[in-house]
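The pair is quoted verbatim below.
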Amino acid sequence: MSAITRSYSANLLSYRHSYHAGNHADVLKHSVMSLIIEKLKEKNKPFVFIDTHSGAGMYDLTTEQALKRSEFKTGIGKLLPGKSQFPELKDYFDLIMKLNPENHLRWYPGSPRLAAHLLRKQDRIILMELHNTEIDNLQKNMRGDVRIEIHHRNGFEGLVGILPPIPARGLVLIDPAYEVKEDYQQVVTSVQEASLRWPTGIYVIWYPILSAQRDRSSVMLQRLGKCDFKNLLVAELSVREQQQDVGMHGSGMVIINAPWQLDQRLTTLLPRLSHHLAQDTSARWMLEWRIESA
């Protein structure tokens, strides 16, 4: 048994994304994901979308779990009324409105459901999930789509195991729970190994920005910045003041092998997201090349 598998077995996978679906971090993640997929679709050639930590694929915002914190109300709930100001995210909003035809926000798409909406007939989707309940939900929510392949496995080791994929262009979304500090190093290790097997793939890593005492994102970013990648772009969005000991006030996205001009599109998108999602005057955004192509 690998060290990655042992770590997950020991921690019993308690994380459930249904408590956080549709929050400001999901908005950032799915906005960046939408822009990258749009760039891939500019060519007629097929591509693959790989999600290493897929979750349930879709979420009911009226459940007890979602309503416990109602994080969606300060995420997608705040953004939807101003959707006309985000023309580059039209397909993302179109899916949300399709899932909620009565204009009452009940359903929010996870990354697998969004990918299924955005990808074309010739494209392929590979989903991984280890949690026993979530894999059942994922299979139910994503059934009937011949483009989709679902694996009940650890996404870190699963990613390395399936590479290089067919077709040989596409993106990987790495979105673990970060329940344990080892997740941060496992992200670095798995993406290093994956890039050796598939150096042309686009790797997109989501991470939380936590309270001052708990945040480990800066260490992970430093380690990723020392890797031998062609380029590495970092986008962050914080919606409120950082607390000392509790809470997630923001999140970030690492993009390895970022598509051409993605940075320009994010430069115009992030300020608008920050304005709409701000919860206090400390809201901010950041875009930075940690490794820039020669």
Summary: Residues 1-12 have pLDDT under 50 and may be disordered. The first strand starts at residue 48 and ends at 51. The chain has eleven helices and ten strands. The beta strands are 48-51, 58-60, 107-109, 124-128, 148-151, 170-174, 202-210, 232-238, 248-256, 284-291.
